[in-house]
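RECORD TYPE: inverse folding
INPUT: structure tokens
STRUCTURE:
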């Protein structure tokens, strides 16, 4: 697999997008994931991202999309987010990416007012439509497992069920190792995602709350998870996901630290191409 970085890691630098792309290549990453909303990108920024990645031979693997409106109870909100997600897929095709990483969000009102099965079916229906749109463009949708109590997809079982209910080959799974730890999911559970997983996120955490830390700053035992990921035979990338550094002026060192730690782990697991 390739080793990538989600470019939101550079948000604290106060510098332009090109700086983060250049630093990603300079540090040694094979690929990059882009966190950018196509409805907010102006033409200059939109073209700059692709131009810089091409110039540096840094392939864009995935584009991250948070679209909680896909499971909203208002049809008008759903329609907007379907169109917004189609814009993400169009951008992914333009960038020659492999997938759009999709976050669906959580059940509303603690599952008390709207029956959870209704929100589930709304999500299934809308993601199925997006799967068709993705397939027509040679893309996949990678669903993210979120480790929160009310998330629609918050463990391997719900991931498998959702993908099976959608029933479209373009709708697949993302594996996020720290999210698995936070949801108390043992590595062996990943075997249920054989043939379903297309992308991986990797970061550390304290085992209690969402963190997205460089490996070694938390409690995650990565080796068993990487062993299971290797057995899945995913043809894709493992992308490091980092939240804000406690020392914003040290963000380059923060990313470098994460790169070196993950590279060692992947080499040990014979997972990096």
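DESIGNED SEQUENCE:
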């Amino acid at each position: 697999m390739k080793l990538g970085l989600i470019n939101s890691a550079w948000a604290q630098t106060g510098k332009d997008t090109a700086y983060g792309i250049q630093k990603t290549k300079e540090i040694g990453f094979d690929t990059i994931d882009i966190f950018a909303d196509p409805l907010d990108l102006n033409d200059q920024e939109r073209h700059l991202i692709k131009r810089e990645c091409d110039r540096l031979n840094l392939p864009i693997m995935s584009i991250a999309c948070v679209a909680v409106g896909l499971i909203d109870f208002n049809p008008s909100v759903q329609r907007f987010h379907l169109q917004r997600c189609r814009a993400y897929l169009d951008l992914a095709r333009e960038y020659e990416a492999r997938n759009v990483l999709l976050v669906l969000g959580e059940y509303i009102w603690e599952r008390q007012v709207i029956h959870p099965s209704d929100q589930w079916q709304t999500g299934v229906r809308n993601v199925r439509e997006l799967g068709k749109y993705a397939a027509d463009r040679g893309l996949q949708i990678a669903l993210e497992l979120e480790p929160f109590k009310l998330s629609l997809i918050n463990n391997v079982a719900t991931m498998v069920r959702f993908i099976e209910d959608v029933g479209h080959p373009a709708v697949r799974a993302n594996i996020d190792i720290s999210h698995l730890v936070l949801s108390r999911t043992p590595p062996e559970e990943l075997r249920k995602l054989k043939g379903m997983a297309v992308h991986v996120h990797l970061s550390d955490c304290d085992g209690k709350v969402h963190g997205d830390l460089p490996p070694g700053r938390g409690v995650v035992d990565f080796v068993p998870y990487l062993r299971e990921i290797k057995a899945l035979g995913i043809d894709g990338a493992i992308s490091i996901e980092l939240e804000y550094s406690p020392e914003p002026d040290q963000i380059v060192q923060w990313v470098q630290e994460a790169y070196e730690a993950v590279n060692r782990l992947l080499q040990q697991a014979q997972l990096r191409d």
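NOTES: Strands lie at 2-6, 31-34, 60-66, 99-103, 140-143, 171-176, 197-202, 237-240.
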